[in-house]
Automatic annotation (TrEMBL):
SMART domains: KH, S1
Family: Belongs to the polyribonucleotide nucleotidyltransferase family.
InterPro entries xref list: ExoRNase_PH_dom1, ExoRNase_PH_dom2, ExoRNase_PH_dom2_sf, KH_dom, KH_dom_type_1, KH_dom_type_1_sf, NA-bd_OB-fold, PNPase
Protein name: polyribonucleotide nucleotidyltransferase
EC number(s) recorded for this UniProt protein: 2.7.7.8
Organism: Culter alburnus
Length: 764
């Protein structure tokens, strides 16, 4: 037996043993979500993964795998990687890049990966620092059902059915609102008419794990109802996955160790540092920098003493011991004393200041300051040709082809007094920008004649920079004269909770915090970001750090955010209460230019040369509207004036107006070509082709057969312009007949006759 055959047999035997241990055979459960049927299956595909599930809705199928290493990672955090990929083959397309392969991740893939990550991360055990990877592959897409929500359910099923420690499962649904009716997991066509796009992930006992929503100023009560309906339907998915788990008798592995500090070390650290930490957190004169420095000083001194007391302790234990004590004191201050580290009560906002028209040359600008979070927002207008195009795979899957409004968020390292790499876009920046863009998009007029780009640069950060971007972006849009339907503001709500000693999954006590600081986000249990106008909600994103949140707390958070949002809008209105009635003097201009067919060839130029020259010299963008109309976009009025003068000069052709249909003129040959001769009827005219077929009644292959030369003058008859392409129609052939014709001169205006033999006979 060959070596290769022995290897194959060993591999097969190994797989059989693995299959026997795991009990591989296909299982499928179905969930009825209204009139739709969601199927979850496992045991057929990717059976070497720790967990694999295929979720199907309609003809859209998504496969999700989960694998976790058995050895702990070196990092002091949960090293979870979620990767969602839109495969071209699943959408029935071939990638359009040079290699015709799937390349880097698109924005859509990254945002969906974040959506899945935020849904499953809170349910991993505390201190589980093992490399874990969740991969989501679209197997088939029907163009009707979006695969992103299916991927969340697939990740939940793959983890729940694996031996990876995870306190799931969860379920996820999308909720739409069409003509006043809520729809669970709406189709793509239904979403086109929906005023709500809510994705919600729920945990057992009707708890909420993650919320992501975009809405068109939906009322608070309608949004709350949508959340409740979504959570209700997630329970059906959870029960189905739990049923599969029981049938498969899933047993979770026991990690070699959880990265938590020992109780003895925590007690020693508490005795050593609690008074000093409490003094820092209750000293309201501290700002972010001085508070961090004071806590860091205590930490360094404490870690040295902890190592002396526990010489065998690992680094992560020492770090975690101090962090847990610091977190405990911070949270107890809020829970028991209703105090925050900056002196505010639980529902107060930080000091807010707004400034618009910060830089005069810009189309729009605003500076928004909330406490120690400072954001500079700018607005730039460009032509509709600058619309952002999505990749073909995203278009095939979601139906979104382009957008004329975009918001780009930047978080440079100096915003938190750090040093880091610049350039490129990380996932966090992309996610924050997408949330702010969702919040502002509903108030942008659909028929605005320009493409709008808002940039948000975080100059200082101490919590909730994404919601500050919403406020600053709204101010900048109004400063630019964009006729937004209403101003938009955003705020972040935090949570400090205490678990029940009997049931750790239940919350015994809690406090909601309005307008959270960075330290409150870090030590808290929730970052609940909500944005909207005075009328309703436009965007909401809830990142929950505990395994689940009761609906009661979610409803309270929405109400508390609504009150804060109105207060922020009142402050913003003092700076600018409505959009400027007109755009700034240096703003862009769009005008339509009518170019007759007779001028189009000269306007465009050979191979588009004149158009490219015009755009390069003046900075304008030109696009064709119809046969005779071109749209000219200029970034400034001066650029438009320059472009108009260029167009007038290039299209100026006064002498052509004197040409009469059917008249004979003297033309000068400027070039001899194989197919004919190029002629001019007057000096500043663009040469036109007189084809061989129009030179003589005889069929010729080259003009030299008639003895024609460059510079020679010949008589031609003018038949106007071709109605389809605007070309001048001339003929010499028709003058070769015996009948005499009248030759008109454009220079001296006298007429002569051409006899049958070609001699010139002056007219009386």
């Amino acid at each position: 037996m060959s070596v290769m055959m022995r290897c194959v047999m060993k591999a097969r035997l190994g797989w059989v043993r693995l299959a026997a241990v795991r009990g591989f055979h296909e299982r499928t459960v179905a969930v009825s979500l209204g009139e739709r049927r969601l199927e979850i299956s496992t045991g057929k595909l990717a059976r070497f993964a720790d967990g694999c599930a295929v979720v199907r809705l309609g003809e859209t199928s998504v496969m999700v795998t989960a694998v976790s290493k058995s050895k702990p990672a070196s990092a002091l955090f949960m090293p979870l990687v979620v990767d969602y990929r839109q495969k071209a083959a699943a959408a029935g397309r071939i990638p359009t890049n040079y290699l015709r392969r799937e390349m880097g991740s698109t924005d859509s893939e990254i945002l969906t990966s974040r959506l899945i990550d935020r849904s499953i991360r809170p349910l991993f055990p505390t201190g589980y620092f093992y490399d874990t990877q969740v991969l989501c592959n679209i197997l088939a897409a029907d163009g009707v059902n979006d695969p992103d929500v299916l991927a969340i359910n697939g990740a939940s099923a793959a983890l729940a059915l694996s031996d990876i420690p995870w306190n799931g499962p969860i379920g996820a649904v999308r909720v739409g609102l069409v003509d006043g009716e809520f729809i669970i997991n709406p189709t793509r066509s239904e979403m086109n008419g929906s005023t709500l796009n809510l994705v919600i992930a729920g945990a057992p006992s009707s708890q909420v794990v993650m919320i992501e929503a975009a809405a068109e100023n939906i009322l608070q009560q309608d949004f709350s109802h949508a959340v409740k309906m979504g959570v209700k339907h997630t329970q059906q998915i959870i029960q189905a996955i739990q049923q599969m788990s029981r049938e498969m008798k899933v047993t979770k592995r026991t990690p070699a160790k959880l990265f938590t500090a020992s109780a003895e070390m925590v007690d020693f650290t508490r005795q050593l540092t609690s008074d000093r930490i409490y003094a820092v957190f209750t000293d309201f004169t501290h700002d972010k920098t001085s508070r961090d420095e004071a806590i860091n000083k205590i930490r360094l001194e404490a870690e040295e003493q902890i190592r002396e007391k526990f010489p065998q302790a690992e680094t992560f234990e020492v770090v975690e011991a101090f962090s847990s004590v610091s977190r405990e004191i911070f949270r107890n201050l809020v829970l028991h004393e209703y105090r925050r580290c900056d002196g505010r009560d639980l529902t107060s906002l930080r000091n807010i200041s707004c400034e618009v028209d910060v830089f005069k040359p810009l189309h729009g600008s605003a500076l928004f300051q909330r406490g120690q979070t400072q954001v500079l927002c700018t607005v730039t207008f460009d032509s509709l040709e600058s619309i952002m195009k999505t990749d073909v795979i995203t278009t095939a899957l979601s139906g979104i082809k382009d957008k004329n409004f975009m918001l780009h968020y930047e978080f440079p390292p100096y915003a938190t007094n750090e040093i880091g790499r610049m350039g490129g876009m990380n996932r966090r920046e992309l996610g924050h920008g997408a949330l702010a863009e969702k919040a502002l998009r509903p108030v942008i007029p659909a028929d605005f004649p320009f493409t709008i780009r808002v940039t948000s640069e975080v100059l200082e950060s101490n919590g909730s920079s994404s919601m500050a971007s919403v406020c600053g972006g709204s101010l900048a849009l109004m400063d630019a004269g964009v006729p937004v339907s209403s101003a938009v503001a955003g705020v972040a709500i935090g949570l400090i909770s205490k678990a029940s000693p009997e049931k750790p999954s239940e919350i015994q006590d809690y406090r909601l915090l309005t307008d959270i600081l960075g330290i409150e986000d870090y030590n808290g249990d929730m970052d609940f970001k909500m944005a909207g106008s005075s009328k309703g909600i436009t965007a909401l994103q809830a990142d929950i750090k505990i395994p689940g949140l009761p609906l009661k707390i979610v409803m309270e958070a929405i109400q508390q955010a609504t009150v804060a949002k109105r207060e922020i809008l009142g402050i913003m209105n003092k700076s600018i209460s409505k959009p400027r009635s007109s755009r700034k003097e240096n703003g862009p201009v769009v005008e339509n230019v009518s170019v007759p067919l007779s001028r189009r060839a000269r306007f465009v130029g050979p191979g588009g040369f004149n158009l490219r020259r015009l755009q390069a010299q003046t900075g304008v963008t030109i696009s064709q509207v119809d046969e005779e109309t071109f749209s000219v976009f200029a970034p400034t009025p001066s650029a438009m004036n320059e472009a108009q003068e260029f167009i007038r000069d290039i299209c100026k052709d006064d002498q052509e107006q004197q040409l009469e249909f059917g008249s004979v003129y003297t033309a000068t040959i400027t070039e001899i070509r194989d197919i004919g001769v190029m002629v001019k009827l007057y000096p500043n005219m663009s040469a036109v082709l007189l084809h061989n077929s129009q030179l003589d009644h005889k069929r010729i292959k080259h003009p030299s057969a008639l003895g024609l030369e460059v510079g020679q003058q010949i008589q031609v008859k003018y038949f106007g312009r071709d109605p389809t392409d605007g070309r001048m129609r001339l003929s010499r052939k028709v003058l070769q007949s015996p009948a005499a014709a009248v030759v008109r001169s454009l220079s001296d205006r006298h007429s002569i006759s051409i006899g049958a033999s070609g001699e010139q006979i002056p007219e009386s």
